[in-house]
């Protein structure tokens, strides 16, 4: 079904489900919004009723994240794969990196990356206008932004890491879309070997960056204001507050996994959001004009500053609508670890539940 869906050009409608989830759309039409199917050896229940979805998400002790694909773990693990107390501890370590004041300090890096991209576009349109494929530019933009904000002074090393992670993402998608055969990941296939090679190289590069920062912090130097510096400073303080008990904080491997997660959670999702925003604005030029007018009204010819962003009401509404129509993740997955009942439905242990995002 996926092959058939991908064989045709995507239509510029608001409904992307038939292309992204053709299997689910077919069974919803045939059996209704709540249906049961087998995904390989795993029984799966599709849930579409808002009340049931709410109850499932509230019962996080019963409906937990399913175990990741063994090769998928080479791409990322970290916070998104943790549950319970381990998740709470890791979240506590990471939270300071995303404090509003810290994010405000990263705005100049965002502006620099955007300015570089716009300058390239101006050079291509010397006659005043030109036609170009914006997708590769937006991919590079988001990778560039994350490289600057995550690694700061280690920017060039960061770019290399993200290039490798991009390749790893495509390989992981290929693997997870294929039939899963137990033990297959141990065979020295071309894809398996390349994924393991990338994982080792990324780990070595990140280990080098983390070790440099660790030595600098122990020597009394102030931590950098990038994501890695804030994360390490938060972790360092947590360990010190517990009498230098390293079991309380994050290990070097934990820090590396979260750095990999910065890329996965930020790069692809943001570039997809930006390109769909441009598509929708091209379809609705009246909203494009209103958004441009608002930006000029708030900032004029000045560089964007953090406080002004709060006044971009129309731009914010546009982004929210794009996220509603084209969410970065189409469906969630939750595994049932003990027999439970939600509404009038009984779920035995071992079942996977798939609510839409």
From TrEMBL:
One of its GO terms (molecular function) is oxidoreductase activity, acting on paired donors, with incorporation or reduction of molecular oxygen. It is found in: Membrane. Pfam families: p450. GO terms for cellular component: membrane. The lineage of its organism: Eukaryota, Viridiplantae, Streptophyta, Embryophyta, Tracheophyta. The keyword Membrane applies. Signal peptide: none annotated. Keywords: Heme, Iron, Membrane, Metal-binding, Monooxygenase, Oxidoreductase, Transmembrane, Transmembrane helix. Belongs to the cytochrome P450 family. This is Cytochrome P450 CYP72A219. It is a single-pass membrane protein. Gene3D superfamilies: Cytochrome P450 (1.10.630.10).
